[in-house]
Amino acid sequence: MGYLVRPSGRLNLPQSDDVAAVVAVQAAMAVRDGWFKPDVLPTNDTLADMAEAAGASVMRAGDWIEFGYDDEGDPKWSDQATAFYVAIAPFVRSGTVHIEGEDGAHWSYTYADGQVTQQGWNGWDGSIEPFGEQVNLPLDHP
Question: Which one of 5, 30, 35, 50 has the minimum C-beta count within 10 Å?
């Protein structure tokens, strides 16, 4: 059960910031509902590990991290997924991650200057900004 997602895109997140980004992501995800349980899965020490709990697969290519669909796992959205994308913002120099929801909803996160901005309507929680209030959109809006 859950809301299936297909992420794509790439972010410039210097490899030298990986450890700090993972610590920030772990702290942010630990206080939200979702699949990551810090005391159950203690091997979550890379961004790739943490991205899996956020419904994505991540591969590093130099100072870039590339997002893809986690076809090996069960890529479901949760508050922890939102927390992942917000928590990495201070470490990302630039880039965009696009999310496609199981119902055809599309939204994205664009990063610049340590900030993240959401474009579009999050199909899982109905928000138009990370951790924002649900917005009622027309029924034909995917």
Answer: 30
